[in-house]
Amino acid sequence: MFLLLCLVGLLAQGDAQDHAALWRGNDRSGRCQYTFTVASPAEASCPQTASPELEGFKARLSLLEALVSRLTGGTTQPGGRSQSELQETLARTVGERNLLQGEKERLERELGGLQHRMEDTLREMERLRNRPCPPQSPVVPPRAGGSGPVSHLMARPNRQGDSSSLRDSAWQRGHAGFQELKAEVTEVPAPEEYTGCGVLVSVAEPVTHRKADSIVGKYGVWMQDPEAVAPYGPNMAWRIDTIGSDVRQMFGYEDMEQLSKGFPTKVLLLPEPLESTGATLYRGSLYYQRRRSRTLIRFDLASESVAARRDLPHAGFHGQFPYSWGGYTDIDLAVDEQGLWAIYSTSKVKGAIVLSQLDPHSLEVKKSWETNIRKNSVANAFIICGRLYTVGSYTAPNTTVNYMYDTETNQGKTLAIPFRNKYRYNSMIDYNPTQKKLFAWDNFHIVSYDLRLGRPMAA
Asked: Considering the chain, what percentage of its residues have pLDDT values greater than 90?
């Protein structure tokens, strides 16, 4: 009776708060069981003690939620780095790993080629070793009586123990077997240096100007403006380190001495990232390829802003048609006496080099030429007087400028002009038409080459 009165009282209280409920049902043994629930005024009025397993689970869940929140929210741990920095570092590491993997594959291919050439050389040596010697010419005996010129000289006694009397008497007698030899020396003037727009004759040994300080300087591009405009003069030298996923910094040096010392006087921040080592400088503007695209950008140095941009039609990019050393060198911009050029390839020509002359203001293609040399079969290329030249190897210490294509005659031909890779990893070669030199970046080293140009042959 007392229990019933308690239940009625609780029901009344539950009705007043509109949160009470009464359930009736059978328990597991089949007996009737009443269950009454009423909301407490405060959650703390019904304390429950959780089991140790539940408390441990809650602790682990809280820790997991904190980690997830930190990763997804980009928050920084004390003494650590943010998620965005970790992702950027990972992307940069993956990019460098891909570069190293590509270099390894190229080195393996070159090693295979060297082994094949060595085997061919050994076979040729074996063939020459087994080849019979040519027959010897028969010795002609002296004529009877010793009247021949040799027998006459041998028969003359040498009374004074030297050859002077023998020689003098023979010449004085004017024997028919002797003929006077006259040596005529003709002075040949040294060839004058050709200062016009000529063909490449020779490349001198490289001159080293500076070595990079860190790994980011293994590849790069350096240049001087052949037609400099204010506010920078012709002596200003510029350098861009091209390793990394976000290449934007361009360092300026007052002259070559300051470049060799490593003291920049100007640092420019490019508005969009640069890709590879194909940038060039011309008439106060930096011309470069935007990262992961076929877009060309003209960056005005004076205003430090983009002056023009344009896609290079159908050009491969980001590893489709690079030079043999890789490095995403699909689009290589160059300058010569005739203006601004682009060296690249397309799917239409199946990887052969395409040469286009560009308008330096709008970047529009003015005219194009298709060659028959594969871009990935050469290490690098440059242009002199409208003629494209390619270099055979980027690692061999002694290689050659092995090909030339003339845009005036639309003809190409093979060459064998010696070229030196002093530091055995040449990733950039450009021509400066004012200084008549090649600028190059060879395995951390900034170098230049003096050139000798010759008068072009008449057609």
From this structure: 55
Strand partners, 332: 343
Question: pLDDT at position 287, please?
Answer: 98
For residue 443, which phi and psi values (nearest 5 degrees)? Answer: 55, 65
**pLDDT digits 0-9 by tens, 185-226:** 445 444 556 777 899 999 999 999 999 988 989 999 999 999
What is residue 227's predicted lDDT score, i.e. its pLDDT? 96
| Span 386-412, average pLDDT | 97
Would the pLDDT of 49 be above 80?
A: no
Q: Cis omega (within 30 of 0) on the bond before 231?
A: yes
Whether the Cβ atoms of residue 295 and residue 267 lie closer than 8 Å to each other: no
Residue 418 zone, left/alpha/beta (φ > 0; ψ -120 to 50; rest): beta
In residues, how long is the chain?
A: 459
The tokens for 154 are 């041998």
Please check the confidence at residue 19 and state whether its pLDDT lies above 70: no
374 phi/psi in degrees, rounded to 5: -70, 135
Instruction: Tell me which residue has tokens 């530091």.
Output: 423
Residues 398 and 374: beta-carbon distance below 8 Å: no
Please, are residues 309 and 236 in contact by the beta-carbon 8 Å criterion?
no
Angle at 381 between CA 314 and CA 400, to 5 degrees: 145
pTM exceeding the 0.85 threshold for the entire prediction? no
